Amino acid sequence: MSTEIRTAAPLRLPPLDLHIGGAWRPSGSGRRFATINPATGKPLCEVAEADVRDADAAVQAARAALGGAWGRMSASERGKLLWKLGDRILDNLEDLAALESADTGKPIAEARSIDVPLAADCFHYYAGLATKIEGATVPVRGPFFCYTLREPVGVMALITPWNFPMLLSARKLAVALAAGNAIIHKPASETPLSALRMAELAAEVGFPAGAWNALPGRGSVAGAALVEHPGIGGIAFTGSTEVGQQLMRQAAGSLKKLTLELGGKSPHIVLADADLEQAAKFVMIGIFYNAGEVCTAGSRLFVESSVYEAFMDKLVERSAKMVPGDPSDPKTRLGPLVSAKQLESVQQYVNVGKKEGARLLLGGERSDIPNREGYYFKPTIFGDVQSDMTIAREEIFGPVLAALRFESMDEMVTQANTTPYGLAAGVWTRDVKKAHGLARALQAGTVWVNTFGMFDTAAPYGGYKASGFGRESGLAALESYTQLKTVWVDLKA
Length: 493
Hints:
With about 500 residues, the chain is α/β, with parallel strands linked by helices. About 40% of the residues lie in helices and about 20% in strands. It has 2 domains: about 5-260 and about 470-485, Aldehyde Dehydrogenase, Chain A, domain 1 (3-Layer(aba) Sandwich), CATH 3.40.605; about 265-455, Aldehyde Dehydrogenase, Chain A, domain 2, CATH 3.40.309.10. It has helices spanning about 50-65, 70, 75-90, 95-105, 110-130, 165-180, 195-205, 220-230, 240-250, 275-290, 310-320, 340-355, 390-395, 410-415, 430-440, 480; strands at about 20, 25, 30-35, 40-50, 135-140, 145-150, 155-160, 180-185, 210-215, 235-240, 255-260, 265-270, 300-305, 360, 380-385, 400-405, 420, 425-430, 445-450, 465, 470, 480-490. The strands form 6 sheets. A 7-stranded mixed sheet has the order 14-15-16-13-12-18-19, with helices on both faces. A 6-stranded mixed sheet has the order 9-8-7-10-11-21, with helices on both faces. A 3-stranded antiparallel sheet has the order 5-6-22. Helix 5 runs parallel beside helix 6 (about 165-180) and helix 10 (about 275-290) packs across helix 11.
């Protein structure tokens, strides 16, 4: 991989290869694909496109690493490497932020202050946890010594999305490596650049060849090859519910260990006694942050009827000031969508919302930025939405908010839970009893009270229902990246 990728200024980068067994190599087919800058609609660079042969080569390299230097490495040594990598990421913060911004369209200020530092934090957190992965003694009946061992799964395929490429990859990479697995990282084909750069940094700090492999390519080819490969012991996937269901079917034949973090249609609930100014601020952030391309986006807003009109006025007034702009400008807070395909999808949902009778309060159309041909869309708010409308049921994954009013708590909870998803929810109230009651009643893996969108590497994250299973982050993530062995020893004389 050329070191020119470290230079933030150029918008075009040299051709990039696959990272397999500690070496950079072209794909077996020689095929490449373009990764596009969403802010301009222009190619950034050409990237090698992995296929079935490359997937097999990566599996063999990972297996060799487990049988060699990586498999023999102590937990303490693994932890030191992870810590060094976290430090190296921070050392390269500016270049990584520029790279992530160019590849995804996210504002540079957010890549610089959130994505890159939190990715580094994942490696620092699990560096400390590497030496804390323990078994237990079990007080069984009889003259036996019984204990458990928590061991790595083996070779794991980590398949990551395009909305937070670096951060969501780090959540999987760090814990998988801390537990002693060898990994094959298949980043989204829309945004492969930070994955390749992280693999390069990992090699620089001393990860043994084959412990960390990066395999950009299409999910239907490279991803499917990994899921079906008999040498893969586990899969961790973040993406759409539809693809997650497909992965479950593909993995069924070999019964691979599977963790899925999937879609969401998160309810954001404002009760009449809430701090309406603060709630309006976070409701806006909850749907328009990262252009709404967030699994936990608060895309369904429930507002108690007695404050509905007043609250919506505040929210629309605030949101109207959020103007899409050039993501390379540090002042920009709303960048483009990731691709032309996503832009078209969002526009179609808006058209359906209008057709089904929702009242458009703000936006609803593409935003034209002077001298730009990127995929910009205006912040969009619909009012008077009904729960059976398409925009209230389906994940849009864009800057589109569907607002509903409610009269009773029971009615609201029923509507909030009437969705196949269960990833997150937000509640705004000054009543502590109502807050805790709703936290229990809402079917979601994460519930935020009087805040929204807070994350920490120490806190488990994942979903209910069609939002997936298994947990990322915290101690809970170890369940997905390790397997438990029970040992019985006969102590009879």
